[in-house]
Design the sequence.
């Protein structure tokens, strides 16, 4: 059986009778935050790595059991 709980700051969701609805959950992979600059007289772009990841938003269906 798949665990359908999550833990946040040491508190488990099953303490509040909250569980994931799906059996399997996949997470989105964040992308690097890159800036491309076009320079006149030069072919292509100059790519600058901003040394961070782009934010990721992800929704999960949860169920609350009484």
Sequence:
């Amino acid at each position: 059986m798949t665990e359908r709980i999550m833990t946040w700051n040491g508190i488990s969701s099953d303490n509040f009778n909250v569980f994931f609805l799906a059996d399997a959950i996949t997470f989105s992979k964040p992308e690097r935050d890159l800036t491309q600059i076009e320079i006149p007289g030069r072919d292509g772009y100059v790519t600058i790595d901003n040394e961070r990841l782009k934010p990721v938003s992800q929704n999960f269906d949860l169920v609350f059991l009484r």
The beta strands are 7-8, 11-12, 18-20, 32-38, 45-53, 62-64. DSSP finds no helices and six strands in the chain. The longest strand covers residues 45-53. The chain has one domain: 7-64.
